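Hey L., structure's done. Input below.
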Amino acid sequence: MSDVGLGSVSPSPSRSVVASRPARPGGKPGPSNTGAIAGVRLTIVNGDQAYGTDGKVIENVDIHGYVRITGKRVTLRNAIVRGGAAKCGAVVQIEAGASAVLEDVEIAPAATGPCLDGIRATAATLTRLNVHGGVNGVATTGPDVLLQDSWVHDLAYFASGAPGGGETETDAVETVGQRGITLRRDVLVVGPRGNAAWQVRQTGGGTSTDLRVEGSWLDGGGCTLNFAHQGGPPMTGIAVVGNRFGRASVFACPVLVSTRTTLTQYTGNVFDDNGAPIPAPGRHD
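Output:
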């Protein structure tokens, strides 16, 4: 599929591209070290964009539209993606069979709704993202997704209108029947009306395995991490290592694990405020 710009590129002297990019501070992800880089001017791109050329690189852009990636090894770097009129889907969609690298990208929907996510990803490396405003921040709709050094926060909640009816279920990261998902050094916060910082389900016909969350800051939801079996074979191959938890989960529940789920690794997880170990995972069917 060729690349299609359904709108237009509108550079201006005040928003032109500059070649150099300053180094970013390290440490806990937040406004200073995720999303588009301060001091690097962006070219405004108007309208929805579809990127289907293998190996294409898009950088230093402010996209006032939705992004759909169908090519392999597509790179989107130093960008803001704003979507448009609210719809069902995702602000950035990486389709099945595609693959992508996103670096220093802010996903900031101009309008949101009860069935709009920030990014739906497969075969992707996502680094230093600032994701906010959608119902789910990152939905791993395929295998082999790495989310690292990213900030997912201030997600949307709707009391009604979710697919199937009723209120929305807000997750910073949602995984359903996928393998090879790694969350590393991220800040994932959903607040008390959110469901989970990471919700994993076995439903959907796939097998959830080879899952890892490490070195991250996690807070909110009913339970902050929720590994729910909900059908299919038992879930194994899950590592929860070296994370720091807040205390904003509704049920005082950092980790909830189904009775048909095995945590392969569970070490070094503490409360962020005092460094005390979090309790053993809660169990449920």
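The chain has two domains: 1-17+31-155, 169-285. Residues 8-19 have pLDDT under 50 and may be disordered.

-- N.
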